[in-house]
């Protein structure tokens, strides 16, 4: 069955400049990593509020991160996990969930989105789906 994403359960797209972007493959100095993570966390909280989800205190949710790169070159979306973690932490900070533990964010998946087409700009859209999906709920 095709899932139609409820736009009220979508955060983003969140444009992220190259100066903040990093992946699992990057070996950053701890202070630079901390600075980027702090900025991404604030960005995630701001966009969650803008989506009307601040204080929503959602129940169990699956998060699909749609990662858009500036070009169509090969990419490994799962390597963006530190960026996604910071964005989700920002959403927790503004009350989208009580915590991002396994009882609240029960599943995370990473897929490639369309290219941004803007040099040096990445983008992330977080699609939030109640868990379990409605067709898997049994009375």
Please tag this protein with its features.
alpha+beta; about 140 residues
Structure summary:
With 139 residues, this protein is an alpha+beta fold.
Q: How would you describe this structure to a colleague?
A:
- Helices cover 24% and strands 24% of the residues.
- The chain contains two helices and four strands.
- It has a four-stranded mixed β-sheet with strand order 1-4-2-3, covered by helices on one side.
- The radius of gyration is 15 Å and the shape is globular.
- By secondary structure, it is an alpha+beta fold.
- Helix 1 (30-50) packs across helix 2 (81-93).
Order of secondary-structure elements: EHEHEE
Number of E-type strands: 4
So how many helices? Answer: 2
Coarse morphology: globular
Quaternary state of this entry equals single chain
Radius of gyration (Å): 15 Å
Q: Give the rounded overall mean pLDDT.
A: 90
- How much helix is in the residues? 10-25%
Strand content: 15-25%
End-to-end Cα distance, whole Å, is: 19 Å
In the predicted model, the low-confidence regions spanning at least 5 consecutive residues are none
What characterizes the major β-sheet? 4 strands, mixed
Structural class: alpha+beta
Strands of the widest sheet, in order across it, are 1-4-2-3
């Amino acid at each position: 069955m095709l899932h139609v994403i409820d736009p009220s359960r979508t955060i983003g797209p969140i444009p992220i400049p190259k100066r903040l972007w990093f992946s699992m493959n990057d070996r950053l100095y701890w202070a630079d990593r901390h600075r980027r993570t702090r900025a991404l966390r604030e960005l995630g909280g701001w966009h969650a509020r803008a989506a009307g989800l601040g204080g929503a205190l959602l129940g169990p949710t699956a998060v699909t991160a749609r990662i858009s790169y500036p070009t169509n070159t090969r990419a490994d979306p799962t390597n963006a996990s530190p960026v996604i973690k910071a964005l989700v932490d920002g959403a927790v900070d503004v009350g989208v969930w009580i915590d991002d533990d396994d009882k609240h964010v029960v599943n995370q998946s990473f897929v490639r989105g369309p290219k941004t087409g803007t040099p040096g700009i990445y983008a992330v859209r977080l699609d939030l789906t109640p868990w379990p999906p409605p067709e898997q709920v049994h009375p």
